[in-house]
Write a structure and sequence with these properties.
eight-stranded antiparallel beta sheet, Alpha-D-Glucose-1,6-Bisphosphate, Chain A, domain 4, 10 helices, 36% helix, alpha+beta, 22% strand
């Protein structure tokens, strides 16, 4: 009797267990109370997650003083949001995409020479055999003017990949045939989406990412952008499909943004990044969380384990830096409306 009474009093007087605001990311990520306290003190968290085969996965989080509307407005201004020492050039595609959207994209001299010399199985850039022939032919036909001709042919090639993706989805993307065996980026993307099992907490969204554009979600706002970014000691050019979804469901992020890389010239075969704004408890911070899974082509071979250690170390450090920079930009205020495009967003 006394024991039962003491147990009842202990239950009433004990503080309630803290709510796991990051439960959405389970089982990929488990956040502890100590992690929460670290975030609430203003520190960021970055950790490497288990990855399969050639995957590298990283999670980062930081406390922010913004709401979902602010994040969506900045995402629509991706050119301004991603400004950093890592991003050399960037541009958003129109709906429908046009060659003029790529006017700011330029290969440097090293990339131009690499593109001109590409052969199947021996190419410094990730291209299909047909793309290698196309770029080589454009350079040969232009003779002395081969550099500007190759620049324009490369932009046309990017535009064609984008249009193919928008019409037929990732399964129609041409293979990368720069190495010993062809790599199909669409298949690698499917694997990454499948390994991001936490996306199952948002019904239908993982299927949408994998089967776009055949599977349509009216609630999702999306657009594509290209970027030239510094990765390791070299620049890499990529195209990313951004999908933004708002949710009021219990436990779901206020805003979730998925960035699916559908083309890249170096290092990465496929990449899926998820940025989420997690509601805080009333009167407390919100949290910005980022999880990225990438299929990296340098992790195979005899020294794959050593290379993985170095890659993971660098990715972890850069993820924290980028997220803190993103926090500062988001908290700086609204994006400049004078530079804004159609604020309604596009749904290509």
């Amino acid at each position: 009797m006394v024991g039962g009474l003491l147990l009842a009093l202990q239950t009433v007087l004990s503080p309630p267990a803290s709510v796991d605001l990051f439960a959405f990311f389970r089982p990929s990520v488990v956040m502890t109370d100590d992690d929460r306290r670290q975030l609430d003190r203003g520190a960021s968290i970055a950790r490497i997650l288990p990855g399969q085969d050639q995957e590298v996965a990283v999670f980062a989080a930081v406390a922010v003083d913004i709401d979902g509307d602010r994040l969506v407005q900045w995402m629509r201004r991706i050119e301004e949001l991603k400004k950093s020492s890592y991003v050399l050039a960037i541009g958003r595609f129109s709906d429908p995409p046009r060659i003029e959207d790529l006017a700011g994209l330029a290969l440097d001299d090293e990339e131009l020479s690499a593109a001109r010399q590409c052969r199947p199985g021996d190419c410094a850039l990730k291209l299909s055999e047909a793309e290698m022939r196309e770029l080589g032919r454009a350079a040969d036909e232009a003779r002395a003017g081969w550099k500007p001709a190759l620049q324009q042919a490369f932009r046309q090639m990017i535009l064609r990949r984008v249009r193919t993706y928008l019409a037929q989805g990732q399964s129609a993307l041409g293979p990368y045939e720069n190495g010993e065996r062809p790599v199909f980026p669409g298949a690698r993307l499917t694997a990454l989406v499948g390994h991001a099992t936490f996306l199952d907490h948002l019904p239908g969204f993982a299927a949408y990412l994998d089967d776009y554009p055949r599977l349509h979600m009216p609630s999702v706002e999306s657009f594509l952008y290209w970027s030239k970014e510094r990765l390791a000691s070299r620049a890499t050019i990529g195209v990313t499909h951004v999908s933004i979804v708002r949710s009021t469901a219990p436990g779901a992020p206020d805003v979730l943004v998925a960035g699916k890389q559908i083309f890249t010239t170096r290092y990465v075969n496929a990449s899926l990044g998820v940025t989420a704004l997690i509601r805080g408890e009333p009167g407390h911070h919100a949290y910005l969380a980022y999880l990225n899974r990438s299929d990296v082509d340098v992790l195979g071979g005899t020294f794959g384990g050593i290379v993985r250690w170095f890659v993971q170390r660098r990715v972890k450090a850069e993820a924290a830096d980028v997220l803190v920079g993103l926090k500062h930009r988001l908290e700086s205020g609204q994006p400049d409306p004078r530079q804004s495009r159609d604020g309604s967003g596009s749904r290509p």
